[in-house]
Design brief:
The chain is α+β, with helices and mostly antiparallel strands and 106 residues long. It is 32% helix and 40% strand. It has one domain (4-103): 2-Layer Sandwich (Alpha-Beta Plaits), CATH 3.30.70. The protein is built from 3 helices and 4 strands. The protein has a 4-stranded antiparallel β-sheet with strand order 2-3-1-4.
Length: 106
């Protein structure tokens, strides 16, 4: 089993996602952050159904950095309850997974 994970977070504006991406890579908490969008999110918030345009950050990092990554996202994020979800990477090219690990804090 490798140590790689993908973290997903959304923001309301492209600029917010790009700022988060830059900060995470600069701090060596993410090897790569892809910003996709706009996407449409439909969700319930405070009893009402909401529909918003958002931008999705796909953050490639290591499980061992998860706590620091979550802390950094929350510090940068404008939402009261940001969407932050983690999925394990169960397999991938050994060269790419090695590259991810080589870009991050030791």
């Amino acid at each position: 089993m490798n140590d790689c994970i993908k973290v997903y977070a959304t923001t309301k504006a492209k600029e917010e996602s790009e700022k988060m991406a830059g900060a995470l890579v600069e701090k060596q908490l993410a090897a790569c952050v892809q910003v996709s969008g706009p996407i449409t999110s439909t969700y319930r918030w405070e009893g009402e159904v909401e529909k918003e345009q958002e931008w999705l950050c796909t953050i490639k990092t290591k499980r061992s950095l998860w706590g620091k990554v979550e802390e950094a996202i929350k510090a940068l994020h404008p939402y009261d309850v940001p969407q932050i979800m983690v999925l394990p990477v169960v397999a991938g090219s050994s060269e790419y997974l090695g590259w991810i690990g080589g870009q991050l804090l030791k």
